[in-house]
Amino acid sequence: MRQRHLLLDPRRPWDVDKDVLDPMYRTGRRFWMLFSILGGLVVMWGAIWVYQMNWGLGITGLNRPVMWALYIVNFVYFIGIGHAGTFISAALRVLKIEWRRPISRAAETLTVFALVAAAMFPLVHLGRSWKFYWLLPIPNQRQLWPSYHSPLLWDMTAILTYLTGSILFAYIGLLPDLAMARDHTVGWRHRLYEILALGWRGTEREWANQETALNVFSYVIIPVMFSVHTIVSWDFAMALQPGWHSSIFGPYFIIGALFSGVAAVILVLALIRKAMHLDYFLRDEHFDGMGKFLLLLSFAWAYFYFNDYLVAWYGQAPVDKVLQDLFEKGWAAPLWFLMLFSNVVLPWLTLWSRRIRTSVPALFFVCVFVQIGMYIERYLIVPTTLGRNALPFDWGIYIPHLPETLITVGAFALVGFLYILFSRIIPLIPVWEVYEGQVLQGLRRIGRALIPTRAEPGE
Amino acid sequence: MAEVLLLGLFHEATSTADTIDQLRRLGLPDEMITVMSGMPYRPEMLGRPRPQRRLGRISLLGALAGCLLGLFLTVGIFLLYPLEQGGQPIVPVPPSLIILFEATMLGAMVATFVGLLLENRFPIFKSQLYDPRITEGHIGVLAQVGAALANQAESILTANGAHHLHRVDASQPPDRGHTVFWAMAAGAVLVLAIGVLLIAYDIVKVSFPTQMADQDSTAYEQGPRLAAPAEAVPIQGPVLIAGQPATEPISPTVNSLQRGQVLFGITCAVCHGQDGTGDGPLSGYFSPKPANLTGEAVQSLSDAEIFLVITQGRGLMPSLAENLSPVERWDVINYVRSLKK
Fold first, then answer.
1. Nearest C-alpha of chain B: how many angstroms from A194?
2. How many CB atoms lie within 10 A of CB B207?
């Protein structure tokens, strides 16, 4: 039982601290190789962005009628990834689910980095990126204030709120671990942590305030998280474009975001467990729980997708039929069937089995397919749907050009780069949460069996 | 009165609670004792009073402030600067609710964070009595006692198994946080300055190439528009042969001039100015400046040439073919003629 449950397997806190801190110092050849490859891709990303700013969006494949394409696909995809972290740490915290303890930090950091990558894309997509401040509620040089009639402005407000909240939420939970890192490091790291920890000593007042703050954030950030992807869906649903103008788009996008996000968190957990030797913290129980969660989200995604599909199919409006024919029989059919296979068939066939859920390579494989499936889903929604509208003279097929393809690669590299960079700077396991769980968890004998139980301190 | 700070480390909660009980019996009030730990022990585990929690109220105040900010953004701005958009209400209710929601939540979160810093007096960069072993799972008990009771308090700590006992004079230790403080202050000033500059762009002008006219892409995407060769045969739209009127001119009747004035106000005045002197609100952004339409250079052009300029654009002036129909272009030309000085 001790082997299965982290919270029943306490070790001396000093050893635990060391287990978290030691991998942060290790920067071997493999690390630097990955660091320079990803760093190079990030530099390339910046260079192409500057090139595009100089020459204009004409260098991309954007053309009538497809004016939203790969950049918007990436935007929706990364915002989606950014949903799982908050959900795991806030919702599972509110629900007092104990296995969340070691994974919440890894998930929160993924949220922040994915949001950073996502927030870049509207700017890249702007073309004249330096005009971004026209979105902020200040008047531009034509004395015009931004108009809140536009869903794009709702979007900007929601993402700014969510990004700010996610960073603060992650930081508040991080304070005790920064203090832990401060106490056990020397040199520049010590000075850095001394500043970042703000003088945390772990007094009763500090803990009480931190608990209140984390509770407030958990309850506030969950509705904000729901609002963000709903508003992203409204960017589409508010338009009279066939295939977009649907009232189910909000909840459907949220489920899709959580689905791809949870899969991404599993991928990250598997990678950091292997790379940073965190086998003590990240055990089968965590992958098992996340796998179940993923299966549940796959059911929900299929349910919402079927709803959206069925209404259009039953109505047989000419444009809807054109779109569905394109997906089922047209050039987009391979993509559409690959999406259904990755998002529905594969998870349903595999994730019911505990053996597959607890086998990290198998789960990793499934999650990679979920990423592919969800990326295709966004690709089908954005440029593919946009190529078919109510006026057949204005139909078109979007083909990505080199600049936006490379910028897409660069954005994935950016998330990876930030992650490996910060994996050496911030403790990826919330040590204090694990301690707390280990102290509160115990075994109780009922008849002949030993049952894990958890103490619930008075509210 | 000389005060002494005592810090002892304990292995677990029970001996910590015993120590605190005995210190209290010694006559030490609760607020003179501080417990430090690497995980959140509940006050009742250590027999301590519950700390006062004001943070929830601060969050609520922040939510209220955020809501007011949202109201200003959605209602206040548009009452101050009404922006008509195609017959829609100036302040649309459902979209405003979205902004109100986000602003309220942002206010709550920012206030919670700032409140956390204030309530904890963070950031603290001066040295405090502390032991790094506290984050290794030990529980620290810090007691501030008068010199008279110091020895008794110390023996209570040691009797209950305190290890690594610190005893220091409570006079304030020197502050070491200057560099960090000034760095943070400089950062705050920088952020503030950028914020002010963003809003005061009209007063403090920072020269920064933001105009499309300065981009390479204007040259790339908007090549020179040439008149069709003389022998070209038009297949649709107005005939654009240099020197010839493209469509039938309209005589400058009162009605035509009136239409021309309205169209001029919509399409031309933003650059050329309401009275055509080339000093519209955007004229400052162009070099060369928009032409003075009242002057000799423009007025000496033939009607057909002016028609060609409106249709095709010239230099930095874009083509207005999509904005003005041929008839409307003639109305504008008639109006421009009436501006002659």
1. 8
2. 5
Domain architecture of chain A: domains with CATH: 10-137+146-431 (1.20.1630.10)
Distance to chain A for B244, nearest Cα, Å: 34
The answer on pLDDT for B202 being more than 80 is no
Task: Give Cβ neighbours of residue A102 (< 8 Å, ≥ 6 apart).
Answer: A6, A281, A282, A286, A429, A430, A433, A434
Distance CA B50, CA B28 (A): 17
For residue B317, the 8-state DSSP code is B
In contact, B186 and B24? CB cutoff 8 Å: no
Query: Which of the residues A57, A204, A238 would you substitute to probe the B interface, choosing the one with the greatest number of B C-beta atoms within 10 Å?
Result: A204
- For A79-118, give one letter per residue: b (16+ CB within 10 A) or e: bbbbbbbbbbbbbbbeeeebbbbbbbbbbbbbbbbbbbbb
Q: What is the pLDDT of residue B221?
A: 47
**Residue in A130, A141, A172 nearest the CB of B113:** A172
Q: Which of A438-442, B33-37, B179-183 has the lowest mean pLDDT?
A: B179-183
**pLDDT recorded at residue A405:** 95
Checking DSSP bridges between strand B33-36 and strand A449-454, what pairing results, if any?
unpaired
Mutation site for A-interface testing, chosen from B109, B121, B203 by largest number of A Cβ within 10 Å: B109
Alpha helix locations (H) across chain B?
Answer: 13-25, 43-46, 55-71, 77-80, 93-119, 150-159, 178-199, 216-221, 254-267, 269-272, 296-299, 303-312, 326-338
Two tokens, residue A50? 């500057």
* pTM for this model (two decimals): 0.81
- How big is chain B, counted in residues? 341
Dihedral pair phi/psi, residue A442, rounded to 5°: -155, 180
Measured between alpha carbons, how far is B297 from B336 in angstroms, rounded to an integer?
Answer: 13
Q: Which of A115, A99, A74 is nearest to A224 (CA)?
A: A115
B-chain residue closest to A139, CA distance: B199
Q: What is the average per-residue pLDDT within B243-264?
A: 84
CB count in 10 Å sphere of residue B311: 19
Assigned token pair, A123: 């700017």
> The tokens of A359 are what?
């086998």
Q: Are the CB atoms for A65 and A395 separated by under 8 Å?
A: yes
> How close, in Å, is residue B216 to chain A by CA atoms?
6
User: DSSP H helical segments within A56-184, as ranges?
Assistant: 70-86, 92-94, 104-126, 151-183
Looking at residue A58, its pLDDT comes to 86
Cα dihedral: A270, A276, A282, A287 (round 10): 0
Residues contacting residue A422 through CB under 8 Å, at least 6 positions apart:
A109, A113
Q: List, for residues A166-218, the tens digit of each pLDDT value.
A: 999 999 999 999 999 999 888 889 989 988 999 899 999 999 999 999 999 99
Are the beta carbons of B198 and A138 separated by less than 8 Å?
yes
Chain A hits for B135, Cβ within 8 Å: 13, 17, 176, 179-180, 183-184, 202
- β-strands B3-10, A441-446 pairing: unpaired
ipTM score? 0.92
Number of alpha helices (DSSP H) and beta strands (DSSP E) in chain A:
18, 2
Average of per-residue pLDDT across A324-329: 94
Distance from the Cα of A389 to chain B's closest Cα (Å) equals 23
Q: DSSP E strands: which ranges in A278-400?
A: none
Distance CA(A455)–CA(A127), nearest Å, equals 56
